[in-house]
Amino acid sequence: MLGLNEKIKLYGFNNLTKTLSFNIYDICYAKTERDKKDYITYIDEQYNSERLTNILRGVTKIIGANILNISKQDYDPQGASVAILITEQGMPSDQVDPSCNKGEIPLMKDCVMAHLDKSHVTVHTYPESHPDNEVSTFRVDIDVSTCGQISPLNALNYLIGSFDSDIITIDYRVRGFTRDVNGHKYFIDHAMSSIQDYIDQKTLDKYDCIDVNVYNSNIFHTKMMIKEIDLNNYLFNEDPYDLKPEVRREIRNKLSKEMIEIYHGLNVYDRIEK
């Protein structure tokens, strides 16, 4: 098996499709309805379509891709989406479909519609709160799908560093096969044992991590949950040092409960209480 920086001498085009699905949660304690509304408004402004577009531009630069088209949209009351069509190699202007804007979005348009080809980058945001829950969440879903020699794994550390992530779920899958000049099939073209191998160690030290991998299908899954809950990072419109110790402990427990259930994908505490 070859590493990411080593090359296989292929026959024709590299037909492998590599897809990285990156899902993060930002958690916040917002007790009152006003706090919840303020948090959702704040997070919606922080991660609007313009900022998300800039983050995805950074992804395309890191993986060495070229932008063919950008489509972005902010939603009412909240949320945003961005889709970028990319290509491994630059294309002459006369070969680019006329519907593509090559990353130059006209200022007069609120939304630019795009088609997606073999390689693309997308992001969608989902702010969430509930009247019966004092913990609000903000979810970001990012998908980077490439074909050819470029790999979305190279952008993993950049993506993690672009968001305040309490919980991270990462899926990586390689589809299809390609051939070398001798006709030998390759179902994956780089060494891979865990997604964690491509994450900076300083980042991993901050999280509890688990892997679920299906090696014979080239499917890799990693989940990460922040280890330390510093209330300075979770209270909205409130200073933790103004609260009594028992109140801080109660808030920390509520945050921990929400994170554990999201991390495991189960209503764990509902089952315990029943």
From TrEMBL:
Pathway: Amine and polyamine biosynthesis; S-adenosylmethioninamine biosynthesis; S-adenosylmethioninamine from S-adenosyl-L-methionine: step 1/1
E.C. no: 4.1.1.50
Cofactor note: Binds 1 pyruvoyl group covalently per subunit.
Classification via SUPFAM superfamilies: S-adenosylmethionine decarboxylase
Names of required cofactors: pyruvate
Stretches assigned to coiled coil: none
Listed Pfam families: AdoMet_dc
Domain of life: Bacteria
Reactions listed under catalytic activity: S-adenosyl-L-methionine + H(+) = S-adenosyl 3-(methylsulfanyl)propylamine + CO2
Gene Ontology MF, one: adenosylmethionine decarboxylase activity
Residues of the active site: S119 (schiff-base intermediate with substrate), H124 (proton acceptor), C147 (proton donor)
Keywords: Autocatalytic cleavage, Decarboxylase, Lyase, Polyamine biosynthesis, Pyruvate, S-adenosyl-L-methionine, Schiff base, Spermidine biosynthesis, Zymogen
Record's comment on post-translational modification: Is synthesized initially as an inactive proenzyme. Formation of the active enzyme involves a self-maturation process in which the active site pyruvoyl group is generated from an internal serine residue via an autocatalytic post-translational modification. Two non-identical subunits are generated from the proenzyme in this reaction, and the pyruvate is formed at the N-terminus of the alpha chain, which is derived from the carboxyl end of the proenzyme.
GO biological process, one term: spermidine biosynthetic process
Top-rank EC class of the record's enzyme: lyase
Residues annotated with Pyruvic acid (Ser) modification: S119
UniProt site (Cleavage (non-hydrolytic)): K118, S119
Cellular component per GO, a single term: cytosol
Similarity remark: Belongs to the prokaryotic AdoMetDC family. Type 2 subfamily.
Function: Catalyzes the decarboxylation of S-adenosylmethionine to S-adenosylmethioninamine (dcAdoMet), the propylamine donor required for the synthesis of the polyamines spermine and spermidine from the diamine putrescine.
Subunit: Heterooctamer of four alpha and four beta chains arranged as a tetramer of alpha/beta heterodimers.
Protein name, per record: S-adenosylmethionine decarboxylase proenzyme
Organism ancestry: Bacteria, Bacillati, Bacillota, Clostridia, Lutisporales
Gene name of the record: speD
